[in-house]
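Journal club prep — side note

Before the paper discussion, L.F. wants everyone to see what a predicted structure for a comparable chain looks like in token form. Sequence:
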Amino acid sequence: MSHLRHVERRTFLTAGALAVVGSFDSLPLVSAADATAASRVEPELAPKPAVLEKLAALKPNQAVLLGKADVVGEFNDTAKKYDLHKTGPKGRDFTIKMCWAPDRKRALFCGANHGVPHRLNDVWEFDLPSLTWAMLSAPDLPRGYGDLGKDTSDCEFKDGILITKRGGPAVIAHTWWGLTYDPRKKALLFMNTWVTDRKKAVKDLGGDPADLYDGPPLWAFFPADKTWKPFKAAKPYPVAIFGGMLEFIPELGGSVWHANNWQMHGTWLHDFDTGTWKDLKANGGGKPFEKEAAEPEQIAYYDPKRKIVVVQRHHDTHHYDPKKNEWKKVLTGDKDDGKSPYGHDARSVMYHDPLSGHGLLVQFQTNTVWAYDPDKTTWTKLAPEGDPMPTGGKRLAYVDPSLNAAVVIDGTTVWAYRYKAA
């Protein structure tokens, strides 16, 4: 079945693969409409029958090594310099969040390392059925830690923004948990906050630092046409701190930017169409907000059934209810209690598992997986059977809801875990 084209991948999942593996009861069925939508996704990637067989055979609380991922894309000299055409993006220090794009049935990734071996503005997506890393946008020239790098010939100062001549961000940051996907706009949103001396950079490019846009550096990347867009907002707008949280919330019709520390106490809502920001004044602001809301370094996911955002910040668990516009700390944990995992945007990731309705947290330092029940407000440390999780230092992870698997990627080595059966 190696001749299967991407246009047939969802049809294959619901029909052709049945003949190969006998039963796909553990995988969700996908409609013809989904197959049609998937056919429009570029690049086209053919599913690998061996991968689908292994996923189909997964039982609850079982894990399997799926093999080595392919790496595809139009790789420029910068990408090849750092062997991205061989390794894929890898985890990048405080940049380990991946965002599921339901219209593409793939997980998106971007963001920079702390500085070693590179700081790049490339964008990727991972496709599980084909076991493939696809580079959607090749990097511009490497940037420095606090400047635009040794070669700024690809940069310009335009309309108050430092931008590359290909239209990407000339300043590139960690994502922390400031990355989300807006399914209405089919756009990846990135709060691109970094330490670059922008005034000096503007002056070096022959511009006037007085013309710099000084609002939150929110960018959108559109996977379908592989383009970037910077947002410029009029005041009022939030402080773009390090380590904040960006999360798309359907009920609010936009994405919230949240922080609770000395730099900013607030949860703000962004309007994609107008580019404006609104302070939601959650919990009425003041001490109630500061007591209940999550602090920076948090990891989070949106729960579409309960219509809340679940946040883990170190060993504490918080819920944000957009309807009530209220934060609540529901659990206060401790590193020695054995009952609460460590949530940190450089050491762990957390995503919603739609089949169970629980949250799944992968803690890279301890190589553990935890499940969170938001109704009981309890955590359970899981003991997956089968193949052990890879233990590399540059891992990424996400949940693929279409194939009912939590996925850990160590370079090109791919491991999948099934929490519950369909």
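L.F.'s comment for the group: The first helix runs from residue 9 to 21. Keep this in mind when we get to the figures.
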